[in-house]
Design a protein that fits this description.
2 helices, alpha+beta
Length: about 70
C-alpha cells in the first residue's frame, strides 16, 4: 500500500499473549499521526485480525490494514 511505500508505518511494539494472540502496536502517519492496535488471533489454520485506531473510523480502518501489510 501507499503507506508502506512512503514508509508511514512504524511498529512500536509486538506482544505475544497466551492462546495464540499477538498484539501489534504501531503509529501510522496519514493526514495525522494515528495510533493503531492490531490483534492477530490464530485459530487452527486460520488467522483473525481485529484492529483499533485513533482515527475517526475507529476500527478495522485503512490504517489497521496498513499495519497488517507491514
Amino acid at each position: 500500500s501507499v503507506y508502506q511505500q512512503e514508509k508511514r508505518v512504524e511498529i512500536t511494539s509486538l506482544l505475544e499473549k497466551p492462546g495464540g494472540q499477538v498484539v501489534i502496536s504501531a503509529r501510522v502517519n496519514g493526514s495525522k499521526a494515528y495510533r493503531v492496535s492490531l490483534t492477530v488471533v490464530a485459530q487452527g489454520e486460520d488467522l483473525w485480525l481485529e484492529g483499533a485506531c485513533s482515527c475517526p473510523v475507529g476500527n478495522d480502518c485503512k490504517h489497521c490494514a496498513a499495519v497488517a501489510y507491514e
